[in-house]
């Protein structure tokens, strides 16, 4: 029977110009992941997040920026797995599973460091789209009332669009925009 690998996961959060972790979100998640990692309960730390902001703000994948910070703070590089393609929660889950397979990890338990309301969305989407049960390592983040409302609307949306299929068209348009490509004709979107 293959050994189960315990994997701590963090998903991308906002970046400040240029390629800096936002202290209100990204840096909080990285600091929390570092504290959880130091318990010794995990074998690997998977960092998920591509280049999801415009190049004036972000020139590298979020996962590389976060990995640099985590490595500078004591996590060995050989314990880090980077996923560099995603730019939303649906992609974080999908590409993280691919990254685990690519790393030869097929039996795993996932524990995700994130803001608690984002954790609700992640748990639901992981179960609905991938049949996975994930644990959440909640991070306390100060949110404005508008950010709270937005997060709850995202939770509702994820309950409606269980596997991200409804969002697929928007995701393609967003990716083309991020890459500086023209919008596709309506029949291709």
Shape: globular
Number of separate strands: 7
> Spatial order of the strands in the main sheet?
5-4-1-6-7
The class by helix and strand makeup works out as alpha/beta
Order of helices and strands: EEEHEHEHEHEHH
**Share of residues in helices:** 40-55%
What Rg is obtained from the alpha carbons, in whole angstroms? 16 Å
The helix tally amounts to: 6
- Oligomeric category: single chain
- Strand-residue fraction? 15-25%
Q: State the major sheet.
A: 5 strands, parallel
Q: What's the average pLDDT? A: 90
Uncertain stretches? none
Distance between the termini: 45 Å
What does this structure look like?
This protein has 189 residues and is α/β, with parallel strands linked by helices. 42% of the residues lie in helices and 17% in strands. It contains 6 helices and 7 strands; from the N terminus they run βββαβαβαβαβαα. The strands form 2 sheets. The protein has a 5-stranded parallel β-sheet. α4 (116-130) packs parallel to α5 (145-160).
Question: How does the SSE layout of this entry go?
Answer:
Blueprint: E1 5-11, E2 15-16, E3 20-21, H1 26-37, E4 44-48, H2 62-72, E5 80-83, H3 89-102, E6 108-115, H4 116-130, E7 135-139, H5 145-160, H6 168-178
Parallel strand pairs: 1-4, 1-6, 4-5, 6-7
Antiparallel strand pairs: 2-3
Helix pairs in contact: 3-4, 4-5
What are the main properties of this structure?
two-stranded antiparallel ribbon, five-stranded parallel β-sheet, 7 strands
